[in-house]
From TrEMBL, chains A, B:
One of its GO terms (cellular component) is cytoplasm. Homodimer. Gene3D superfamilies: NAD(P)-binding Rossmann-like Domain, Winged helix-like DNA-binding domain superfamily/Winged helix DNA-binding domain. Residues 79-180 form the CoA-binding domain. GO terms for molecular function: DNA binding; DNA-binding transcription factor activity. Its main location: cytoplasm. Modulates transcription in response to changes in cellular NADH/NAD(+) redox state. HAMAP family: Rex. PANTHER family: REDOX-SENSING TRANSCRIPTIONAL REPRESSOR REX (PTHR35786), REDOX-SENSING TRANSCRIPTIONAL REPRESSOR REX 1 (PTHR35786:SF1). This is Redox-sensing transcriptional repressor Rex.
Amino acid sequence: MRRPKIPEAAIKRLPVYLRVLEEMQEQEVPIVSSAELAERTGFSPEQIRKDLAYFGAFGTRGVGYDTALLRRRISRILGLHQGVKAALVGAGHLGYALARYSLSKHKDVQIAAIFDVDPLKVGTRIGDVVVRSVSELEQVVRQEGVKIGIVAVPASEAQRTVDALVSAGVEAILNFAPAKLKVPEGVFLQNIDLTIELQSLAYYTSASQVEEDEVRVEQP
Amino acid sequence: MRRPKIPEAAIKRLPVYLRVLEEMQEQEVPIVSSAELAERTGFSPEQIRKDLAYFGAFGTRGVGYDTALLRRRISRILGLHQGVKAALVGAGHLGYALARYSLSKHKDVQIAAIFDVDPLKVGTRIGDVVVRSVSELEQVVRQEGVKIGIVAVPASEAQRTVDALVSAGVEAILNFAPAKLKVPEGVFLQNIDLTIELQSLAYYTSASQVEEDEVRVEQP
């Protein structure tokens, strides 16, 4: 795949633009300026123009972007125009919440399969999707053409799960297990570690102690 | 509070350093080089030296950092040395997963209170913590000295929840509701939007279409 080097932070902003553009299209706003996008997303107009220019989307100076065209463009860049299939592994509370949320909210990333090891869960449904045994993972993922894997299993099972997903053809993985995982080159791995999120949040409270006169950490 | 301007990305790396330093202390490694930290965290040695220097932590050239001192330093920077209390609002599947996970895994950010609107949930326990009615939120948060709020309520309830947390003295908020929320200056808001995570993941799959010869989005 040829593609420009785009910072991850810019990719993360694309779905936000998409959401705003969908709203504006529903409100039948035909043209949108970077200033309006800034107002609705909270990003700066400069940031927005820079992000969109990565993908060859240039507004007309003093006019703006064609709402429908820009929406379609971003949708294709993200690969959402034709829908992308995802598989969820791990139907515990977190997995259940993710599945329920994803199944109800958006069709462009579709949870096409759910797997768990627990025989009591196998055969039950979350929304319209039947939970299957992990033993069927590789076959189903390959058959369904699943491209995204969501890992919500315990840390001890995470690497094994990732290996199975990758071997079945998954190209991008969203991992919630608190484990340092290895993927082969060409597979994208995004970790969401809730411990890290919570711990780093504490920095922004008055509990944080950054004193200028603190002793330097040095070897004697 | 006086504090240096530190990029958010650097703050997010601190808990990772902390985890590695804890491991190394358990393994009784007295001194750690930036190369070893790089090996164990996956970040580059240059990145690590730069991050730690923000906080006045300088290793000795060719030797490294004192493991115990550096761990203590990072713990204080993050405000975790004395423990930080968090309150969770919303005990649905996501909230339940967050609470169970946080309650079992780490003591430095402690979930001190859980709230829900559902009378069937109020009075039940998650781990050792009793779920209380949202009507008690402000009083309990103030009483307990809670500094962090975790929002796992539906989008329609999110702003009201955040307002109540802020008014009770919460200083940093981790929000899982897919809503654009307002907080007053001085309160830190971190959003984790699972739709955005999933949608941006699709960019890294073969579904993404970034063609160089694609038509530019322009006004005629």
